Amino acid sequence: MSVRSTDKRITAPEVRARKGAEPLVGLTAYSALTAHLVDQHADVILVGDNLA
């Protein structure tokens, strides 16, 4: 698994702009601890079990 080189957060418009271009890596984390552990490996993290 690769590691992101920066800690820069991406915004919703940046996600939209990448549509059809560079792939996004998205992960689901069921707790804040898990989210912290996978943060360096993903562009988008869904924390919890609901997406609203």
Features:
transferase; Pyrv/PenolPyrv_kinase-like_dom; 2 strands; alpha+beta; 2 helices; elongated; Pyrv_kinase-like_dom_sf; 52 residues
Roughly how much helix do the residues carry, as a percent range? 25-40%
Domain module count: 1
Shape: elongated
The Rg value, from CA coordinates, equals 11 Å
What is the arithmetic mean of pLDDT?
A: 82
Number of DSSP helical runs? 2
Give the SSE order as H and E letters. Answer: HEHE
Catalogue the unreliable spans: none
Question: Looking across the biggest beta sheet, what order are the strands in?
Answer: 1-2
Give the helix/strand class: alpha+beta
Strand content: 15-25%
Count the E strands.
2
Q: Largest beta sheet, briefly?
A: 2 strands, parallel
Distance between the termini: 28 Å
Give your account of this protein's structure.
- With 52 residues, this protein is of the alpha+beta class.
- It has one domain.
- It is built from two helices and two strands; from the N terminus they run H-E-H-E.
- A two-stranded parallel ribbon has the order 1-2.
- Helix 2 links the parallel strand 1 and strand 2 (44-47).
- The protein is elongated, with a radius of gyration of 11 Å.
- It starts with 11 loop residues before the first helix and ends in a 5-residue tail after the last strand.
Summary, kept brief:
The chain is α+β, with helices and mostly antiparallel strands. The chain has helices spanning 12-17, 32-38, and strands at residues 26-29, 44-47. Keywords: Methyltransferase, Pantothenate biosynthesis, Transferase.
